[in-house]
Amino acid sequence: MTNVLISGAGPVGLTLANELARYGVSIRIIDKAASRTDKSKALVLWPRSLELLEHGGYVEPFLKAGHPARGAQLSDGSTAVAEVSLAGMDTRYPYALMIAQSETERVLEEQLAARGVRVERQVEMTGFADKGSGIEAVLAKADGSTETVTADWLAGCDGAHSTTRHELGLAFEGTTMDSDWYLADIHVTGLEPQDRLHIFWHRDGILAFFPITPGRWRVIADIGPAGVGGRHADPTLDEIRAMVAQRGTPGIALSDPVWLSSFRINERKVKQYGKGRVFLSGDAAHIHSPAGGQGMNTGMQDAFNLAWKLAHVVKGTAKRSLLDSYSPERSAVGDMVLRNAGRMTDAAITRNPLLQTLRNTVVKFALSFPQVVHVMADTLSELNIAYPDSPLSKSGAPRAHGVRPGQRWPEVLVAGARLPRFAAVGPADVVTDLVRRFPALVQPARESMRGDPRDLVLVRPDGYVGFAGAASDAAGAASYLAAIAA
Question: What is the pLDDT of residue 225?
């Protein structure tokens, strides 16, 4: 019997599959498409996602396939407004890794194949029933046949039009923005430096360039409210050239388009990320403006969050209640990303001349302060994500170091682990005793540069602090683990 059926083999489903396979969980992953995408689509892996891939032990193939972007330049088309550097972020990856979604999916699928799992393509889940003790799902195949499969759990990573979400009857609440956009994946010359995002806040609308590979860029531009005839047609090369000539700086030349498209922004989200034995991740649970490039990253981080919890419950080492933390933790993150992306989009597309002038003045002034740049970078990179209100975030006896439950632990304390255990940072004798009492839940952390000998910290498998207390509070840590252990 399959432990987990994963519907959808985009970046989110493939990430979940890799993590569960790494932990020895039996999975099937299906997708109705005949092959993975050949489009660039989501373009960036932010530092927090890279850190989590390092936790899993397979970040290197992404680093080889991608190209670092180290900041952004903002202009109004004639004069510079501001520059944002990512160099000051507290991470091993102080940059945005620019990588086409087609490449992200390739790397993830190759990693999954190396773990002995194959994506079942041209297979679509058409319905399912939660039987209480497991899931019964109906799969439709390319040859017209159907298969009824049973699994302990179902993960819906099946995108914005999710069958899983529809079958659960969960409302996808939100709006569609009354604005159309052009997109071009195209070759560009005359734009320097090439390791920066270039954003033009022109009076007629935003124009943005995102590097993909040397000489190849993503170009997006808003073209104003949609007409009465509905969505604009996909642009031609000449239309993109005309828009760049109008809004950009002189000397930018475009050629050899890889992909030309138009799109409209939806901002929608479910309130709960699942029901019973079924969970939602990625676009099945939340979609929002591409401003900030956080959609795919947020979805992949949904998968990292869910995987270790599912693995413990499947293996019988943790109570089923551990899974109750998934929805509140990730829904709060989804709300934050939705809110931030919406604000950035609203600021970028305003056409009111007074508001444009005010926006440019405020941004130029604010970004002259390193502290503001730091906060902005941490928000974009998702390094500031934390779970302070999670049922898994607990404080023990007062500690010296100021570590807060729910916060990100910047170091990777255990990489590529076969079991999803907490990393214990603290006095050796206390850590040894916790490992003896809870061998399925705890392992000693490798030497930490962040730890304080006066503290005792349990860092979750996804790199967030679960328990934080004084070094003497072994009883508090044991009580925390006992509440999770099956």
Answer: 75
H or E stretch at 151: strand 146-156
DSSP 309-370: HHHHHHHTSB-GGGGGGHHHHHHHHHHHHHHHHHHHHHHHH---HHHHHHHHHHHHHHTTSH
Q: What is the pTM of this model?
A: 0.94
pLDDT band at 355 (very low <50, low <70, confident <90, very high): confident
Q: Using a pLDDT cut of 70, give the percent of the chain over it.
A: 96
Residue with tokens 């270039």: 198
Fold of 394-484: Glutaredoxin (3.40.30)
Largest Cα–Cα distance of the chain, in whole Å? 71
Q: What CATH number is given for 174-267 in this structure?
A: 3.30.70.2450
CATH of 2-39+100-172+270-348, one of 3.50.50.60, 3.40.190.10, 3.40.50.1860, 3.10.20.30: 3.50.50.60
Tokens of 165: 């979400």
Q: Where exactly are the structural domains of the chain?
A: 2-39+100-172+270-348, 174-267, 394-484
Query: What DSSP string describes 164-192?
Result: HHHHHT---EEEEEEEEEEEEEEEEES--
User: Above 70 in pLDDT, residue 365?
Assistant: no
Residue 120 is given by DSSP the state: E
For the chain, how big is the Rg over CA atoms in Å? 23
What whole-number distance in Å separates Cα of residue 423 and Cα of residue 415? 11
Encoding tokens for residue 208?
């943005």
